[in-house]
Amino acid sequence: MTHSAAAFGSRVPQHENEGKVPMKAPTLALAVALGTLAGVAPEVRAQDMPAPQTVSARVIDTACYVNFNLSGPDHKMCAEVCANAGVPLGFLGEDGQVYMASGKGMPSVGQNPVLVEHAEQLVKVTGSVFNRGGARSIVVDKIEVVDG
Ligand SMILES: [Cu+2]
User: Mean pLDDT across the chain, nearest whole number?
Assistant: First the structure.
């Protein structure tokens, strides 16, 4: 039955792909969850971290800046309200680039508790910078207030 074998053959690769793609993410998530429970969460090794850079930036409320182009001293109170409502604070570099603020390691930790006192201030932030999928992030090591 060569004609039905050909039809069957064309279905096999599709079926294999359907099985493989959705399995990846849950398997990784499960591995991370089990690792965390067992106290052996994968560690980010120092050699995996890019050398720290210092970026001159304003601490911004990412929602109001990206959605409404709001930032600066006049927006400080709103930024604090947004941050306390869970909106991530981040950085607007003097180069115009927006950076997410992230903590060290994996699992990571949000930076709002560190950044909220600097909402809308001009700072020099030092840390490893990552760039992926059109987004940048700074792993916050040190913040020095420049103005505000
Ligand atoms: Cu706001």
Answer: 82
